[in-house]
C-alpha cells in the first residue's frame, strides 16, 4: 500500500514536470538532468536521499511564469519504515507551481487514489465477463436456446425433487430441507456459474458429510455449515487457492467416492427394509442390521426391492435402439418413440416415486397403509433469515465458537470436497474446454452462502443430474432458473402430496443412484499403470469406511504427499561408463530432477559410491545436470562437501549442463575446485586434460574452456 501510494504520486508529479518543461518558454526552463535523476531514484525506491530533504529544485525560465518544487519530508506514519531501512531516507513529496498545499493533499489522497485506480483496472469488460459469465452469453441468447434450456430445466426439476427429499433423509434432516437446498443455488449459479451442465443442489456426498458432522445439532447446524462452507469457498476463490484441489489425486478420489457410496447405501438399508434402529457409523450400522434383520417389514422390503429393480431397468431403457441404427434412416414415429423412451428413463425417479405415492394414497383410502410414509412436510417457502450463529438446545444457548468447534474439520474439508465434486462434474462435460477452478470456487461459494439464508444444507454439483442436464440438451446455465421454479412450485403447492411418498421408494432412489459411484472397475487400470497408486486408494477407502469420511480423505492425501516427498528425496540416478576416442574412461551420472534439501545426502552418497566402486577412485566423474532446474542452500552445501570428497582422493568431478542460476547458487558457498562447463567441446577438453595426465597433475590443473571456481 505504501509503495502504491508513492508510485501514484510520483506518476502525477512526473506528468506535471513534463508539462512545466513543455511550457517553460524560451528561457530554457524545464526539468534538469539532476531533477530527472532524483525523480528516477524516487520512481525506483519510493524514497529520496536525506541530503535532498532541504533542497528546492527550481524549474522554469524567463519566458514561463511557473516553477516546479520537489521537496522531501518525514512521514510520521511511516517512521517505522525508515527505522527498518536504517538509512535515514525520507518520504517524497512533489509540488507544482506555487500551490504547495497540493503536495500534502495528494499525499493524503494517494493511497485511496491508488486503490481507485487498481479497482478501475480490474473492472474491465473482460474481467467482468470472466467473473460474471452470464454477461458473456446473455446478449446472444435466442429463442431456440431458451427452448432447449426450458426442456432441460424442467427435466432436471422432476429429477431433483425426489432426490432432494431423499438426500435430506440421508443427512438426517426433515424432508423440506432437501427442497430448501434446491432452488436458490440454481438461481445464483445461473449468473456466476461457468459450466452449463452443472445443476447445483443437494448431493449424496454432501448429505452424508453433513450427517456425519452435525453431532445432533439438528437442522440449524446444517444451515450454519452451509454458510461456513460458502464463506470458506469464497475466501479460497478470492485468494485463488484452486491449486489445492490438485492435491487430491485420482486414486484418492476413487477411494473416497466408493466408500461414500457404500456408506450412503448402508444408511438407506433401514428404510428399504422397514427397520427401526440408530447407528453412529458404518460398522455399527451393519451390526444393527444384523440384530434387527428379523424385524424386516415384508411390504416395505417388497416395495423397496421392486423399486430398485425397476429403477435399474429404466436406466437402460434410453439405450434401446428403435429401428435402423442410422438416425437419418429412422421414421418420425421411431424418433418419437426413442424420445419417449429417453424421457421415461431420465424421469424414472419421479415416475417411481409418484406411482408409489399413488399406491400409498389408495391404500389409505381403503383403510390402512402397509408402508412407512415420509409424513408431514412443512408447506411453503422458507423465510429469508440469517444463518443461526447460536442455538438454544433447551438447556442452554450454544454460541458460535462452540458450534464451530463441534463442526470441527468439516468447515474446511467439506468446502474442498464440494469443490472437487463440482469441478469433476464440470470436467466431464467440458468438451475439451479448460475449467476455471477459481471461478467455480467463487460461484459455488456464493451458492452456499446465499442458500444458507433460505435454510439450505451444503450444496454442490450432482453428477447424476448433470448427466440428465447434458442429455436434455441444455445450452446455458439458464436451465437452472426453470429447475429452481419447479422446486419453488412444489414447495408452495404440492407438499401435501409428499406425505404419501413411501420411505422405501426414496431409499431405492438413493441406492440405485449411488451404486454406480462405487468405482471398483478402475482397480485393474490402476494396477496396470502404477501399482503404488493402489496404496492411497485402498487407504482412503478403508479409512472412510472404518473411521470418518473427512479423515479418510486426509489420510489419502497425506500418503500421496509422502510419495511425492519420497520421490523428491530419492531421485533416479542414471550411471553410464564411457571410453573417449583418446582412450580415457569417465563416468556420467544423470539425476532426473532438481536438487532440493531432502535429496542432498542421497545424491552425495550415490555419487561418492559410484566414484569409488565404478570409478576406482581415479577416473573422472561427470554429473550431467540437464534436469537440475534449481537448487537450494542445503544442496549447495552438499555439493561443496561432495567436491571435497573427490578432491581428497584426487578424483576429478565435473558438472555439465548446469543452469547459470544453479551455478550462482553453488558458487555462493565457495566450493573448492568447482569445475563446470556448458558445451560438449568444453567437457571433452577438460576430460582429455584429466585423462592424459598423471593424478598429481590432475589434482591441480584445469584446461580448455571449462570454468574453475
From TrEMBL:
All copies of domain SLC26A/SulP transporter, residue ranges: 148-538
GO terms for cellular component: membrane
CDD domains on file: STAS_SulP_like_sulfate_transporter
Signal peptide limits: none
Main location group: membrane
Comp. bias (Gly residues): 58-68
Gene3D superfamilies: STAS domain (3.30.750.24)
Region (Disordered): 15-37, 53-85
Any Pfam family the entry gives: Sulfate_transp
Subcellular location(s) per record: Membrane
Keyword Transmembrane: yes
Keywords: Membrane, Transmembrane, Transmembrane helix
GO biological process: transmembrane transport
Entries under InterPro entries matching the protein: SLC26A/SulP_dom, SLC26A/SulP_fam, STAS_dom_sf
Residue stretches of biased makeup (Basic and acidic residues): 72-81
Transmembrane annotation, as ranges: 146-165, 216-235, 241-265, 340-363, 398-420, 441-459, 479-499, 506-527, 547-569
Membrane-protein topology: Multi-pass membrane protein
PANTHER family reported for this sequence: SULFATE TRANSPORTER (PTHR11814)
Name assigned to this protein: SLC26A/SulP transporter domain-containing protein
Native species: Laodelphax striatellus (Small brown planthopper)
Amino acid at each position: 500500500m505504501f509503495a502504491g501510494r508513492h508510485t501514484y504520486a510520483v506518476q502525477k508529479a512526473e506528468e506535471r514536470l513534463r508539462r512545466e518543461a513543455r511550457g517553460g518558454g524560451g528561457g530554457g526552463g524545464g526539468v534538469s538532468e539532476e531533477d530527472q535523476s532524483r525523480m528516477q531514484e524516487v520512481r525506483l525506491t519510493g524514497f529520496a536521499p536525506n541530503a535532498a530533504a532541504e533542497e528546492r529544485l527550481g524549474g522554469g525560465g524567463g519566458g514561463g511564469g511557473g516553477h516546479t518544487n520537489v521537496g522531501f519530508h518525514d512521514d510520521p506514519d511511516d517512521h517505522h519504515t525508515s527505522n527498518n531501512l536504517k538509512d535515514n531516507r525520507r518520504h517524497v513529496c512533489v509540488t507544482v507551481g506555487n500551490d504547495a498545499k497540493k503536495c500534502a493533499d495528494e499525499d493524503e489522497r494517494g493511497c485511496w487514489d491508488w486503490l481507485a485506480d487498481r479497482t478501475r483496472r480490474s473492472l474491465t469488460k473482460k474481467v467482468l465477463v470472466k467473473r460474471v459469465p452470464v454477461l458473456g452469453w446473455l446478449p446472444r441468447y435466442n429463442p431456440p436456446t431458451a427452448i432447449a434450456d426450458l426442456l432441460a430445466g424442467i427435466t432436471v426439476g422432476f429429477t431433483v425433487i425426489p432426490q432432494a427429499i431423499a438426500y435430506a433423509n440421508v443427512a438426517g434432516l426433515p424432508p423440506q430441507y432437501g427442497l430448501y437446498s434446491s432452488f436458490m443455488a440454481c438461481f445464483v449459479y445461473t449468473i456466476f456459474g461457468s459450466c452449463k451442465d452443472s445443476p447445483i443442489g443437494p448431493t449424496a456426498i454432501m448429505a452424508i458429510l453433513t450427517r456425519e458432522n452435525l453431532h445432533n445439532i439438528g437442522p440449524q447446524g446444517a444451515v450454519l455449515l452451509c454458510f461456513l462452507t460458502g464463506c470458506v469457498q469464497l475466501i479460497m476463490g478470492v485468494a485463488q487457492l484452486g491449486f489445492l484441489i490438485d492435491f487430491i489425486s485420482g486414486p484418492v478420489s476413487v477411494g473416497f467416492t466408493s466408500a461414500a457410496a457404500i456408506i450412503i447405501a448402508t444408511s438407506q438399508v433401514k428404510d428399504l427394509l422397514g427397520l427401526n434402529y440408530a447407528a453412529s457409523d458404518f460398522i455399527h450400522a451393519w451390526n444393527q442390521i444384523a440384530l434387527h434383520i428379523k424385524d424386516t417389514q415384508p411390504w416395505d422390503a417388497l416395495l423397496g426391492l421392486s423399486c430398485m429393480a425397476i429403477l435399474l431397468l429404466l436406466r437402460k431403457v434410453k439405450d434401446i435402439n428403435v429401428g435402423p441404427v442410422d438416425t437419418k434412416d429412422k421414421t418420425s414415429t421411431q424418433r418419437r418413440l426413442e424420445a419417449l423412451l429417453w424421457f421415461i428413463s431420465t424421469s424414472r425417479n419421479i415416475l417411481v416415486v409418484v406411482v408409489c405415492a399413488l399406491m400409498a394414497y389408495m391404500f389409505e383410502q381403503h383403510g390402512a397403509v402397509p408402508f412407512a410414509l415420509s409424513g408431514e412436510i412443512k408447506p411453503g417457502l422458507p423465510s429469508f433469515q440469517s444463518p443461526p450463529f447460536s442455538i438454544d438446545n433447551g438447556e442452554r444457548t450454544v454460541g458460535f465458537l462452540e458450534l464451530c468447534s463441534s463442526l470441527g474439520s468439516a468447515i474446511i474439508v467439506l468446502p474442498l470436497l464440494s469443490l472437487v465434486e463440482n469441478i469433476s462434474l464440470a470436467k466431464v462435460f467440458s468438451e475439451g474446454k479448460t475449467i476455471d477452478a477459481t471461478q467455480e470456487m467463487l460461484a459455488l461459494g456464493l451458492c452456499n452462502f446465499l442458500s444458507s439464508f433460505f435454510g439450505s444444507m451444503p450444496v454442490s454439483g450432482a453428477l447424476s443430474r448433470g448427466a440428465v442436464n447434458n442429455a436434455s440438451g441444455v445450452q446455458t446455465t439458464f436451465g437452472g432458473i426453470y429447475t429452481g421454479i419447479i422446486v419453488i412450485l412444489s414447495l408452495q403447492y404440492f407438499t401435501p402430496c409428499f406425505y404419501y411418498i413411501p420411505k422405501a421408494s426414496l431409499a431405492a432412489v438413493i441406492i440405485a443412484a449411488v451404486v454406480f459411484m462405487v468405482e471398483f472397475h478402475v482397480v485393474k487400470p490402476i494396477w496396470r499403470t502404477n501399482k503404488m497408486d493402489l496404496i492411497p486408494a485402498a487407504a482412503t477407502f478403508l479409512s472412510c469406511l472404518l473411521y470418518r469420511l473427512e479423515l479418510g480423505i486426509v489420510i489419502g492425501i497425506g500418503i500421496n504427499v509422502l510419495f511425492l516427498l519420497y520421490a523428491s528425496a530419492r531421485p533416479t540416478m542414471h550411471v553410464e561408463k564411457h571410453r573417449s576416442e583418446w582412450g580415457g574412461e569417465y563416468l556420467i551420472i544423470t539425476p532426473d530432477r532438481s536438487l532440493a534439501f531432502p535429496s542432498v545426502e542421497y545424491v552425495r552418497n550415490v555419487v561418492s559410491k559410484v566414484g569409488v566402486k565404478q570409478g576406482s577412485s581415479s577416473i573422472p566423474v561427470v554429473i550431467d545436470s540437464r534436469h537440475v532446474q534449481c537448487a537450494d542452500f542445503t544442496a549447495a552445501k552438499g555439493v561443496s562437501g561432495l567436491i571435497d570428497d573427490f578432491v581428497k582422493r584426487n578424483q576429478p568431478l565435473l558438472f555439465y549442463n548446469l543452469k547459470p542460476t544453479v551455478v550462482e547458487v553453488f558458487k555462493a558457498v565457495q566450493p573448492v575446485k568447482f569445475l563446470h562447463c556448458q558445451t560438449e567441446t568444453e567437457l571433452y577438453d577438460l576430460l582429455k586434460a584429466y585423462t592424459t595426465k598423471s593424478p598429481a597433475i590432475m589434482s591441480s590443473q584445469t584446461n580448455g574452456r571449462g570454468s574453475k571456481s
